[in-house]
Amino acid sequence: MKNIRRFFLVVLVIFFTYILFADSFPGDLDFNLPGSQTQIQDQVQQSSYWKHDLLWKTLAVGGLSAIGIWITLRRAFKYRKVLMIVSIAILGFLFGGVLCPVTTVQNVLFKYETAYLLMFLIPVIISFIFGRIYCGYVCPFGGVQELLYMKKYGKKVPYKTDKLLRYVKYIVLAIVVIAALSAGRVFSGFTPFKSLFTFEFAIIGILITTVFAILSIFIYRPFCKYLCPYGALMAFASRFSIFKVKKNDSCVNCNLCLKKCPMGAMETPGEVSDECIMCGECCCACPKNSLEIKSGGD
Question: How far is CA 182 from the centre of its chain?
Fold first, then answer.
């Protein structure tokens, strides 16, 4: 518990420092717009964080993630979907789809600003410590897919195909980074449900959203599993996480946890892969409470 308290203390110090000095940093600039140096300076002055929603976006991501950590460590999994719906409302519709799985990665490369870096790092750092809590509790894009999923119509992707497809998101991550660095390309329009959150109804956006909305009815979080570049980063980070799902001595190897895991992240009881989003379904399914979310030293 001491490590948890220290973590939250560090987070509080970072946020209060950020708030105190936020006004001295530039805001969200549109580097694609032509303009003179004077016009750009005016844009900086008009976009300070106290006047811009970047501050509130950052605080929302951090605050909602902190609640997700609390739910996970307290095993209060019945509140997970409540938090997910709140996140869809705030990060999705209120803030226009934060954090976009594609542009979040590219913003760090394009826009050298504290807010973008901090928003990018919060979920990744949390994944290093607590696992992919952001994916399972906070991400509005993943949340919409989960709410659309209908278990009675659910289809399982064949094991070998599923395993192969899970590597595609790492290829997508590489493409996104290379395209941003070499050609200055941004692929925000290719993110499923982005048009739903931003109310920008471009044909390609509507088409991609429709395809993944239909897929989500039959396959649990298809974009998260197979294509999300930001999820690929957090999956890699979660390999080194301090807190993991672990089994205790009361396990009788009934394999209920394997059957209940919606992400297919568990192949043997108590052994999870980096696909685990810490949803707690395995813990809730265990009749003997043999599964716990705890640190390696506990």
Answer: 26
Classify 161 as helix, strand or coil.
helix
Q: Mutual orientation of helices 54-73 and 114-130 as an angle, nearest 10°?
A: 10
List Cβ neighbours of 248 (8 Å cut-off, separation of 6 or more).
290, 291, 292
Q: What pLDDT score was predicted for residue 286?
A: 92
Does the domain spanning 245-298 belong to CATH 1.10.287.3240? no
Residues 193 and 241: their CA atoms lie apart, in Å, by 29
pLDDT in tens, 155-179: 999 999 999 999 999 999 998 888 8
- Find out whether 163 and 95 touch, Cβ atoms under 8 Å: no
Q: Phi-psi region for residue 185, left (φ > 0), alpha (ψ -120 to 50) or beta?
A: beta
β-pairing, 271-272 vs 266-268, is antiparallel
Question: What's the pLDDT at 10?
Answer: 52
The residue ranges of the chain whose pLDDT is under 50 are 12-13, 15-52
Q: What residue ranges do the domains of the chain occupy?
A: 2-25+40-241, 245-298
Distant-in-sequence, close-in-space partners of 48: CB < 8 Å, separation ≥ 6: 22, 23, 25, 26, 27
Say whether 75 sits in a helix, a strand or coil: coil
Tell me which residue has tokens 């999956």.
235
> What confidence score (pLDDT) does residue 125 get?
95
Residue 169's contacts (CB-CB under 8 Å, 6 or more residues apart) are 225, 226, 227, 228, 229, 231, 232, 235
Whether 117 and 217 have beta carbons less than 8 Å apart is answered as: no
Length reported for the chain: 298
Query: How crowded is residue 241: how many other Cβ atoms within 10 Å of its Cβ?
Result: 21
